[in-house]
Amino acid sequence: MSRVKEGNRRLTCDIPEELHKELRYLAVENDTSITKYVKAILEEHVKAIKEEKK
């Protein structure tokens, strides 16, 4: 049984320890989880790239 909700895909990547630490602090400052914070950053970035290509 998969832990990933239907319609989603899991993304796993190794990042430097210092970057993880900074993400953790930013997530706390924004009262959210690292997962939600990173997802929001990725969504903003993808949207900006799509708009640039228009």
What would you note in describing this structure?
The protein has 54 residues and is mainly α. 61% of the residues lie in helices and 0% in strands.
Helix count equals: 2
Mean pLDDT: 93
Low-confidence stretches: none
Distance between the termini: 41 Å
Strand content: under 5%
Structural class determined from secondary elements: mainly alpha
Q: What is the string of helix and strand elements?
A: HH
Biggest sheet record: none
SSE layout and pairings?
Blueprint: H1 17-29, H2 34-53
Could you write a compact summary of the structure shown?
By secondary structure, the chain is mainly alpha-helical. The chain has two helices and no strands. α1 crosses α2.
Structure keywords:
mainly alpha, 54 residues, 2 helices, 61% helix
